[in-house]
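Ticket #4471: structure output looks truncated?

Reporter: J.K.
Steps to reproduce: submitted the chain below (389 residues) through the standard prediction queue, then opened the result file.
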Amino acid sequence: MRVLFTPSGVGLGHVGRCIPIARRLERDGAQILFSTYREGLKYVQQEGFQAVEAPDIGVAVKPDGSIDFRLTTVNPGPFLTVYTIMKQVDAEINFIQAFNPDVVVSDSRASSLVAAKLLDIPRICILNQFQVFIPRRKRFLKLARIADATTLTLVGRIWADVMHVLIPDFPSPYTLSTRNLHIPKAYHKKTRFIGPILPVRSDDLPDQKALRKKLGLAEDKPIVFAPISGPAKERAYFTGILRQIFSKFPDDYQIVMSLGYPNSSVEPVTDGNLIIHGWIPNRFEYLKACDLVVSRGGHGTLSQSICYGKPTILVPTPSHTEQFNNAKKAVDLGVAELIPQENLNKNVLLEAVRKLLENNFQERSEQLQKEVIKCDGLETAARIIVDAA
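Returned output as attached by the reporter:
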């Protein structure tokens, strides 16, 4: 069996959930090829998979990490954007014809689905956002309305014109991305909530005390874990703020930060009670060892934290509607606190940390973990792909 994975290359979240599936299929003899770009391409290659570089469709980013919709929509302009999309489709057609896959698995990329349809190749789509959202600020309101109407009809049809739409999220009523999934009824039969795709499950690891000893972490104080992910430009500003804040945290806490650079040295830098890693390959050990998580509002990190029973402080990327929606749902579930980036400072973050440690957040997080842990997105996705090929 030959499987072509075509995840979005923006950040590491999309490739990060495709890689475990690819490893699982490879274990059973499947031949794997990735088509992606940007950070995703480097990460896939670092993980040892064959990969081809697809044309990039990017967005403009402001210095504070927020998406610059003015520059994104004006530059490169609509005609060049259409040209780039067609260039992506053309590239995917060439990749598919050369590799001759039995099935194409897209993660949040429409171009490969269009190419596979033109070549009559079975198609599976992984996604946690059915349409593109523009912030509902006054200056973007008209653009937002147009985008919602357009993507729901155009992009929505591309997503749904497949054999299966796999949503790596919890079933209702615990679905994190529920506000991002306005799925027309006509497409419901193809849609399946499979649960998060975890390469390492909590039960497969030693207990928290043993992990802290193995990792050299404090056994007598709370551990705050801050695994920062997302596109490089978006996270640079955020990691700078967090480093300044955490360096002033009281010694009552130990903080472990990951800056999210896969190619960086694994040797950490220690500044008092703050430990900074460029990259943590065994991040799930740190996730189980910690008491709470500080992160953006990305779907992957948030769903992993819930699967490990960890309360989370969420600071969504400004103007990133999907992340805000994920964060709001986690708050509604009683396992998270949301801090807007413009309000983030030492006092606000420290107060949130104390709140999550001292109130019932820990208990609610563990209760939710028990409710959702039966979901095995990895095995379910692998089985569906094999059946489709």
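Triage note (M.O.): checked the attachment and the full token line is present. The first strand starts at residue 2 and ends at 7.
Status: closed, working as intended.
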